[in-house]
Q: What sequence folds into this?
């Protein structure tokens, strides 16, 4: 989803683009390396002669993935990439991080900014934990030889989304029309092309010793923020799926999720998902606007229309 938009915007600017991905891309304008970010020799070849790396590869939150995969990809893969950049003389690296690096699973966050610390206790979920480790590694690598920065997108959605909206739509298709919480918790979203726009802006302002070098930035969309289920409801209606018919309050939902983790540890219904939907998680992108001029370029209405069109074009009206 994000990599596609970054490549499209770079091609629109007549840039030479090289892609390393685990899946092939059918575009003759792109120099393609098919493979895994854990393959050191391949990563080094991909970094040869490159001016800037956009590091978007990650093992994304999925309860069925073994913890070892997160560690190998998110931490080990990032370490390999940083080493390869230094060995091949790549001067700039923009890292795709996540808002989850500051979420501690307890306290609400309203209009959070970059002054928020990493959690004192490492998160239990392996995605958040390894994204913290990889972000810290990237920022610590910033120096005279390699300038680095990290972008922390909010809940990202858009065409080619394989995780966020599809998981919620899948639950609705299976008839589990349940809203978690009382609907008051707010959550920040961001459209994928706006995140891609932020990556290109950050790269353009990134160089050793600049204001962007060594910094982390939240990337969000237009205000106001909405409850997750309020955000989801228009998409469900477009797909002729019913919105949640009843709700489970936060505390009972958290207790049920704790039990579910014992009975079905690979289920997407767990304490992490309950906290994400029942506790405020909103952020601002003021620092990104100040340091490299970021503002969303795709309106909320246009982002919604494009995403709906893509969802409707999928088998059975939406991705499975």
A:
């Amino acid at each position: 989803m994000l990599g596609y938009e970054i490549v499209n915007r770079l091609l629109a600017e007549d840039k030479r683009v090289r892609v390393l991905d685990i899946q092939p891309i059918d575009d003759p304008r792109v120099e393609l390396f098919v493979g895994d970010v854990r393959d050191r020799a391949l990563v080094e070849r991909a970094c040869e002669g490159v001016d800037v790396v956009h590091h978007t590869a990650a093992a994304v939150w999925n309860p069925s993935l073994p913890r070892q995969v997160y560690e190998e990809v998110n931490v080990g893969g990032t370490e390999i990439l940083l080493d390869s950049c230094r060995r091949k003389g790549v001067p700039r690296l923009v890292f795709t991080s996540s808002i989850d690096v500051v979420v501690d699973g307890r306290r609400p966050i309203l209009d959070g900014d970059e002054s928020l610390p990493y959690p004192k206790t490492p998160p239990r979920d392996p995605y958040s934990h390894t994204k913290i480790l990889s972000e810290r590694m990237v920022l610590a690598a910033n120096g005279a030889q390699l300038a680095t920065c990290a972008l922390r997108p909010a809940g990202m959605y858009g065409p080619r989304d394989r995780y966020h909206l599809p998981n919620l739509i899948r639950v609705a298709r299976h008839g589990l029309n349940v809203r978690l919480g009382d609907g008051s918790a707010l959550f920040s979203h961001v459209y994928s092309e706006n995140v891609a726009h932020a990556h290109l802006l950050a790269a353009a302002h990134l160089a050793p010793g600049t204001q962007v070098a060594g910094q982390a930035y939240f990337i969000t969309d237009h205000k106001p923020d909405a409850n997750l289920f309020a955000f989801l409801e228009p998409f469900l209606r477009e797909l002729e799926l019913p919105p949640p018919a009843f709700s489970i309050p936060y505390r009972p939902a958290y207790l049920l999720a704790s039990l579910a983790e014992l009975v079905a540890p690979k289920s997407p219904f767990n304490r992490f998902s309950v906290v994400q939907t029942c506790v405020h998680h909103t952020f601002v992108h003021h620092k990104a606007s100040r340091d490299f001029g970021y503002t969303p370029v795709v309106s909320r209405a246009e982002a919604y229309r494009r995403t709906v069109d893509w969802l409707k074009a999928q088998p059975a009206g939406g991705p499975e």
